[in-house]
Amino acid sequence: MEAGRRNRGRRLGLGDAGRERLRQAALARRPWEHSTGPKTAEGKARSAANGKLRQKGPRSVRERRAEAAGFRALIGLMQAGRKSSATGPGPGPSMAV
Known about the structure:
Strand content: under 5%
Distance between the termini: 103 Å
Oligomer: single chain
Shape: elongated
């Protein structure tokens, strides 16, 4: 019993020296420079699905924003087309008498 309590006390959290030792090891090895993320299609799909667990609704905010941007671009093209047809040469078919 007593040995278990002592071991548990050693495992709970890091002291200042232990935290500094981990920090120095991470700075020496620089793991962030070597991590490349998933390479296979299956791994990429699994990684993309990670955020879907907590989202509200069937589509994410990013997907809805992308769709809205597409609609805004379409509206801009339609407005530009209307402006160019309004300033074009002569009356159009709807204005013919």
